[in-house]
Amino acid sequence: MRFDVISIFPEFFAALQLSLVGKAQEKGILDIGIHNLRDFTSDIHRTVDDTPCGGGAGMVMKADIWGKAIDSILAENSGLRPVLAIPTPGGKQLKQADCHRLAKSSQVIVACGRYEGIDARVAQYYRQNSQVEVFEYSLGDYVLNGGEVAAVALIEAVARLVPGMVGNPESLTEESYSAAGLLEYPVYTRPLEFRGLAVPEVLLSGNHQKVRQWRREQALRKTAQLRPDLIRALAREQLEKDDLRQLAAAGWFLAADSEKYPHLQQIEFRPARLEEAKKLADFAAQTFPDACPPGMRPDSIASFIAENLSESCFRAYLNDETRRVLVACTDAGEIAAYSLVIIPRAAGVANIEEGAPVDFVVDGIPREGPLLYLSKLYLGKPWRGSGLCQQFLKAVLADAAAQCREWPEPYIWLGTNQTNKRAQRAYKKVGFLLSGQRVFFVGDESNKDITMVRRLNMKN
Ligand code: SAM
Question: Which positions of the chain have pLDDT values less than 70?
Answer without folding.
Answer: 78-79, 460
